[in-house]
Write the structure tokens for this entry.
Amino acid sequence: MATIIGGLAASHVPAIGGAMAKGLQKDPYWAPFFDGFDAPCRWLEAVKPDAAVVIYNDHGLNFFLDKMPTFAVGAAPEYRNDDEGWGIPVMAPFKGDTKLSWHIIETLVESEFDPVTCQEMLVDHAYSLPMELFLRGRAHDIPTVPVVVNTVQHPLPSLRRCFKLGQAIGRAIESYPEDLKVVVIGTGGLSHQLEGQRAGFINTAFDKRCMDAMTGDIEGLLGIDPHELVELAGSQGVEVMNWVAMRGALTGDVRELHRNYHLPISNTASGIMLIENRPRLAQAA
Ligand code: DHB
Ligand code: FE
């Protein structure tokens, strides 16, 4: 059976793509951010995952405001990257695993989630940058299942709903009959707001609460409603919904192995986390 070996989270600011293309990883502005990936990359090289489920939000590349699914799941053999307008370099395509995708989709529908199923899907910086940052040389070889959450246009799903989506994804992975080691990646956040009177808004106290909640009081986060979340995290900081969905997929005992918090990267408080997931004894038996 497939096992979930861990969860990873990272912010997904487009400017990171420009910095990577220019080789600015050791530049004083960027180094405190890029250095945060060394530990998770070492862990990933050691554990060698066979597949990655990537939970993120589309920024108008694949879905636009006229047709906005609350949840969508990729079921394509390949995912082409494109630039939704930031001018960052386009990367090579990423690999899909259609069998794992359909298993996740079937489990979600059985669990009363009804995602849009995408047999063709473009992936933007929110998928491509964390893939490259975490998986480096293997980013284009590891089969993935992209899961898209609407963090863009109200009504947004609640944090509790995102957590439950993650739990259903976790059950799907653990009932998949192939011996795959799977990591679940959640991208976006932490606090940021790009527009309006609060442009540049960052809330370090809330960011710390979110990072602590990944292995601590997750229940305390789940009661925050979407409007309160906009107030606490900023209108784009709500992307932490993708972290919460990732956390929901970690069905075993979780342990924080690494975190990095640095701000600002562009307009965003950047958080990076690596969480180990160990099956509980009862589950393992
Ligand atoms: C920025 C952050 C985002 O999450 C995003 O999708 C676009 C831009 C930024 O901080 O510039
Ligand atoms: Fe974003």
Remarks:
- The CA atoms of residues 51 and 182 lie 5 Å apart.
- The mean pLDDT is 97.
- The two ends are 13 Å apart (CA to CA).
- The first helix runs from residue 15 to 21.
